[in-house]
Amino acid sequence: MSTLCVPAHVPSVAEDCEQLHKAFTGWGTNEGLIISILGHRNAAQRKLIRQVYAETYGEDLLKALDKELTNDFERIVLLWTLDPSERDAYLTNEATKRWTSSNKVLMEIACTRSPKELLLAREAYHARFKRSLEEDVAYHTHGDFRKLLVPLVSSYRYGGDDVNLTLAKSEAKLLHEKISKKAYNDDDLIRILATRSKAQINATLNQYKNEFGNDINKNLKADPKDEFLAILRGTIKCLVCPEKYFEKAIRLAINRQGTDEGALTRVVATQAEVDMKIIKDEYQKRNSVPLDRAIAKDTTGDYEKMLLALIGQEEA
Amino acid sequence: MSTLCVPAHVPSVAEDCEQLHKAFTGWGTNEGLIISILGHRNAAQRKLIRQVYAETYGEDLLKALDKELTNDFERIVLLWTLDPSERDAYLTNEATKRWTSSNKVLMEIACTRSPKELLLAREAYHARFKRSLEEDVAYHTHGDFRKLLVPLVSSYRYGGDDVNLTLAKSEAKLLHEKISKKAYNDDDLIRILATRSKAQINATLNQYKNEFGNDINKNLKADPKDEFLAILRGTIKCLVCPEKYFEKAIRLAINRQGTDEGALTRVVATQAEVDMKIIKDEYQKRNSVPLDRAIAKDTTGDYEKMLLALIGQEEA
Description:
The structure is a homodimer.
Chain A: H1 13-24, H2 31-38, H3 43-57, H4 61-68, H5 71-81, H6 84-97, H7 105-112, H8 115-129, H9 133-140, H10 143-154, H11 165-180, H12 187-195, H13 198-212, H14 216-219, H15 227-240, H16 242-254, H17 261-271, H18 276-287, H19 291-298, H20 301-310
């Protein structure tokens, strides 16, 4: 569920564009006006605003924003303004170029999006970068990470609820065997995680717990510093309980020396219109602090205001 | 270019359905009538016929055909009547279930279809089998074949003409290195074939030829009996010159003790509306015999008539 607050009476697109244009011109930039418009429009409305803005002022709205804004505020406004599939294409491209074994963005996008959304992101990637997502991932990653990430980003999983329980049992056993032998990069282990439907994987992991007494992610913690194990645990979390994965991503971004604005911005910009309500609940349950209070404590200025607008804090 | 002949004045869909229904009822089946209708309607028209037939007679046309027809004639009429993406889903599913190392159908469909067509086939696969294509391929194949086939069927290649020549040079060199070391299952070799756009692969293989003097497929013939090498050569052929691949598939199906109806039917049913004109020209050039004469010599009855209708032989 979305945390975005769209007003009951939305001004016309032309009016929104005019106001945005006004916010850019004259002395200084009117950040508050930008937040009050873009922070309260849904994806379809933002798309239309971008289109009409370009027609009216002969400039891409993103370019105008890029010129006017800076730092974390700029990044969240730009990411947010992008169409979801374009945004995913942008984030995955950035992740291939900055790839390190601790970078989980590719896995996160491949596993938390619906099969159809991932496909749309791959289409947007073609359009923007004139290459395929999987080709860039395969080119920039290596070894076990490549072995896992390429099929994850290439997957077009079955999206239905049908589950084969016999298969779930046999694959739970197979996973347990491989993990017991520490064969974490095993072909079949990766095949199961990268190709089975989310419903099927969920059934398999339930069988795993019933049969072997432990959550699979407990058994994948042999070495807490091993980055490949960490990405395997992340994969499983993103596939079966994305809201918990995102809660933790936000928690880690906030609870550290110096906020990790990159992660915070990415999660808020990509989830505000998806599951942010559930993520907020998870956050409060896990940290005994409401997410908006935690964000307000850790961030400042227009960046803070935009984050709070997107996670649905009522305006005073 | 298609070889399908659709008459200038096509009867109404209702009329086509009525005629087909008539062909099924009464004494015996009127195969000639079935060929004269279905053998001369394009994909959109056949789809509409199937829809109206089901509405009018309360039975799927494919079921009715299945009851009335037999053997090779049945198979070509059924395959042909299917929507192209449904047909590809059906053929790939069959290939996963009957998979052997000499079965090239998965590779053929993954590499000769356009990126968008392959995607539509994967969607049709979800709808029909409640699983994903890549999940079944990964489950039913093993070792090096799995390592190649899963990324091939999962690919959503960039479809444009943009080519990076620097990359083509460096990857041609990389391919040559790996092949010289007989590292045919090398990660990078498979990555290049499974993820790069067809235009990029074509440029890379031209560089390969310029730089190293041989067609890459010559260098992949170290052991002519090695099935993995054969599928690698097939992959390259399907990606850069599908019409030559199909010409050879038909040639091998015809020029043997007992025709390989399975291959002949598949190529004609899947290519009649795509590249069959070019494949026919290739065939004549390579065998000094027109394809229709070769088919007429090797097949009989209604099966022969349907094949000839689809490859565009003028009716007397």
